[in-house]
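**User:** Here is a favour to ask of a fellow structure person. Please take any protein you like and set down a full record of it. No explanation is needed for now; the record alone will do.

**Assistant:**
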Amino acid sequence: MILLAASLFFAHPAPLEMPKAEAYLVKERDGAVRLEDRYDTLDLWTSRAVVGRWEDDDGRQFMVARLDKVAPKFAEATATREEYGRNERPLDRRKDLDQRDDAISRLLPFEMPDQPARPRQMVRGFRDVLYYQGTNTSVLACAFLPDRPQAPWYLACWELLPGDDPEQAADRFESEFLGQWDACLQGNLRSEALLNDARAERAPKRSKTRLGERELLRADARHSVTNYLDWHVTEAPEFSVLDDLPPVVKFVPTLTNEFATMRRRYAEVVPTPIDGSNVLCVARIFKDRDEYLDTVGDELKWSAAYWCPSRRELVAYLPEGGARDLLKTIRHEAFHQYLSYATSMISVSPWFNEGYAVYFEDEEAAAWDLGEVEVNVDELAQALPALLLMDQSQFYDGSNLERRVKYRLAWSIARFIEKGAPEVRFQPFKDLKKRYVEALLKTHDMQKATAYAFVNKDNLDLFVREWKKFWKGE
């Protein structure tokens, strides 16, 4: 691992984002349907080239990238991870100087100058050192080639603060970073070795190809934290958990035991026609809320966890209530994760998505849990049809109390479907969930899927009446 975690450059690690994915449904010859993730090849290349990001106590950002693969020429090209791996080409450190410059230009946070500059005196231990400053003074950008056999080019970018002296920053960079490069080289090599190991697991058979996609995703998830001293990786066949929790928190073993059980339970309650054999559940758990907010941003500052479909990762933090509360939150978000894969990443109606997520926090919970707010079943029954047609913006809009009421109303629908609907005469709602998933996959429209699931207005009215009877205990 990197040994400079206490230095200016490696003070606070910033885990790398997973590359954005687009979901496609692929029909096999035997009729099975599976989910295929495709990526912008430049985004995939960037996520693997960057080996780490850090921030110092004052807010200066620091990034290191490894330039050992040729950058894709066309950013709009897409590919699966395996297709990308089959077509990527190593960057020859001696011959591919144009490709090296192209890779650097794609990673620099400013326009690349026409000519780089070299230090007044070559830094010991390096064959070459190039500064790409031009007229820029806010970011120190340096490409360097270590003087050791087969070592690739690297790029470091250090974002300075207003008032920082660029010349003093360059002197410090050379003495404290380049001067100690050997101490961190092992960590960077380790991340690349892990990625190569995953690629080697590919096999020509189709079934092995699916496993290869899963293992390549696992390698990319591992790569996103492998150069951070405080981060750990825990893995099982269906998931990878990344965390920087302190050693005293005994949470991850409990989570690893429950993850597989939870996913089986989700599949029993909400089955899907999609083959999920190539799916990997990635969870990233921060030790505190501040780290979590740095990742998810102000838009989600009200949240306790977040499933990011585009990045294919579940993000959470250790709450004040400890591991028990965190596990409850994970059960909730892991259902969002499962349902996203089960519905090909198509937006799902909040009544279904949030209702069952809250239901799975504790399947035995039967109370409305609205605090001091009085539960009026008749009034809530009147609000139920409108809630069934809400999209995400409508569902999450409003005050904290209004959102809480909508969450609990959605939960009440899920609990009724599971506990009350089977007791209704002739079971008119038996296939409701199946119809919803089928319609969503066909129409890509959550409101059309809801309408199809409830068949017609008479059936919806019957649902509301039976829901009201259930919650009144009649």
Observations:
- The CA atoms of residues 350 and 392 lie 6 Å apart.
- The mean pLDDT is 87.
